[in-house]
Design a protein that fits this description.
It is a single chain. The protein is of the alpha/beta class. It contains eleven helices and 15 strands.
Length: about 375
């Protein structure tokens, strides 16, 4: 990542989209969010009776088909939304487990495409569907901050002048392999997750995908495209405290947020709202609240999490939340934190179960993951969405 910020070029979001359990498009997911409804429900894809929870936010259109992973179906739903992309665009993908469902098949003696298991499978699938021929791709697997890191890396390359255009795509699916792992960690909530709520009991898994097309302002203008949003700042830091637990003081997240605001050349009072990681686990939510209060003091802007609606979508979480955050900034509306009712200490007056109007040009998006990784993106309001 560049350490000098004096001559960074502006990075425009020219296209974006999502597919989640709450909707197969940005608009459908956004409208579900605004209603305060949850897409977390009983899982029927595999047996769940022996696990800590039976709940997740699955996309009903994702059904097993032959030897291919569910990741193919999910990416097909996503790629259909992507507009024309310059052939010289860098493709950046992000995932934690890619087509891990095919590993389950192979272990059970069922025919499966073994190449789908590798994270690099996303690059080949998307490049083929978008007819990208320049063989330029990069995959990021940084736990649950994967797609946030991917956006940061692509934005850094564009802002420094190394590239002109990039497509960032993230995707992860709910499989029994992943579900059993989180159950073994005892972090699955027996009821739909309640981010920042005093009575939260863990996270709810979700699945989904996102894409963002990023370009330098000059390239976008030459193509007659408008800025639907701007990646104004980015920061990545690692607290190096524990393999799965965050630093209780939020040191890594604080560094990532401060770096993102430094790159954006803004002050803390420019931030109109925060899209938090907000998993609903005891320690993650407390860590984030500690970090935000440390950065913003007594002037912390409103905080929200979308995971009470769409669940925790693993490595796709950041990408989805950046797209939704850009929508929130454009609409000057923060969506409700679904499942929230009784505030945890530190969340009073900051988190709401109702949509909130905001005024401002900047929104902060943060994500954290296993291994102590933390990433932050500062979004700037664009002219069009």
């Amino acid at each position: 990542m560049a350490t000098r910020t004096a001559h960074l070029r502006e990075v425009w979001i020219t296209d974006s989209g999502v597919a989640t359990g709450a909707g197969l498009s940005l608009e459908e997911t956004w409208q579900t969010l605004l209603t305060g409804k949850t897409a977390i429900r009983d899982i029927t894809r595999f047996p769940v009776t022996s696990y800590r929870s039976n709940l997740g936010s699955c996309i009903t259109k994702l059904q097993p088909s032959g030897s291919a992973s569910l990741i193919h179906v999910l990416l097909h739903l996503l790629v259909d939304q992507i507009g024309p992309v310059p052939e010289d665009s860098l493709l950046v993908t992000a995932t934690t487990k890619a087509g891990i469902d095919n590993l389950e098949k192979l272990k059970r003696g069922v025919a499966a495409q073994s190449r789908d298991i590798l994270p690099s499978a996303l690059s080949s699938i998307i490049a083929q569907k978008l007819s990208l021929t320049n063989n330029r791709s990069l995959n990021i697997s940084a736990a649950c901050a994967s797609s946030t890191v991917a956006v940061a890396q692509a934005a850094a390359l564009i802002s420094s002048g190394a590239i002109e255009s990039a497509v960032i795509s993230s995707a992860d699916v709910i499989t029994e392999f992943v579900f059993s792992g989180f159950s073994a960690l005892q972090v699955l909530s027996p009821f739909p997750c309640k981010p920042f709520d005093k009575y939260r009991a863990g996270l709810s898994l979700g699945e989904g995908a996102s894409f963002l097309t990023l370009m330098s302002a000059s390239r976008a203008k030459r193509l007659g495209l408008h800025e639907k949003g701007i990646i104004a700042g980015f920061g990545i830091a690692n607290d190096a405290v524990h393999i799965t637990a965050p630093d209780r003081n939020g040191s890594g997240l604080i560094k990532a947020v401060m770096r993102a605001m430094d790159v954006a050349k803004i002050k803390k009072d420019n931030i109109a709202g925060i899209s938090a990681h907000g998993t609903g686990t005891i320690h993650n939510d407390l860590m984030e609240l500690a970090a935000f209060h440390s950065v913003f003091d007594e002037d912390c802007p409103p905080i929200y999490s979308v995971k009470g609606c769409i669940g925790h979508t693993f490595g796709a979480a950041g990408g989805i939340e950046i797209v939704l955050g850009n929508k929130a900034l454009s609409e000057q509306t923060i969506p409700p934190t679904v499942g929230f009712s009784e505030p945890e200490t530190g969340a009073e007056g900051l988190v709401s179960s109702q949509p909130l109007s905001i005024k401002g040009d900047y929104l902060l998006v943060t994500n954290s993951g296993f291994g102590g990784i933390n990433a932050a993106i500062v979004l700037k309001r664009g002219a069009q969405l």
